[in-house]
Design goal:
about 90 residues; mainly alpha; 5 helices; about 0% strand
Length: about 90
């Protein structure tokens, strides 16, 4: 975690980018488009559960801003994955 701290990237941007990538992968990679979108959007549940799990971890705090950044990243990742999926299908 120390190495990520050296990048001087705000925490919320890290959450957004991580969930953007995480949610775009199933949208791009699943054979069935609908299943890919559902799997990508299900990352919202993952983000909420992981954030809720921080409640029982010493030294960690649950933040609504992190959950919102996760949700925004998931939404953008799912939307970004669709045109990438279409470009790959053309190839």
């Amino acid at each position: 975690m120390v190495d990520i701290g050296r990048l001087h990237i705000p925490d919320k941007v890290q959450h957004f980018c991580a969930y953007l990538i995480l949610s775009s992968l199933p949208v791009i990679g699943f054979r069935d488009r609908r299943h890919g979108i559902v799997a990508g959007l299900s990352m919202v549940v993952l983000g909420v559960l992981l954030e809720a799990g921080q409640h029982s971890s010493p030294g960690c705090a649950v933040e609504l801003g992190d959950v919102l950044a996760n949700c925004a990243g998931v939404s953008c990742g799912a939307l970004l994955g669709l045109p990438i999926r279409a470009c790959i299908a053309i190839l």
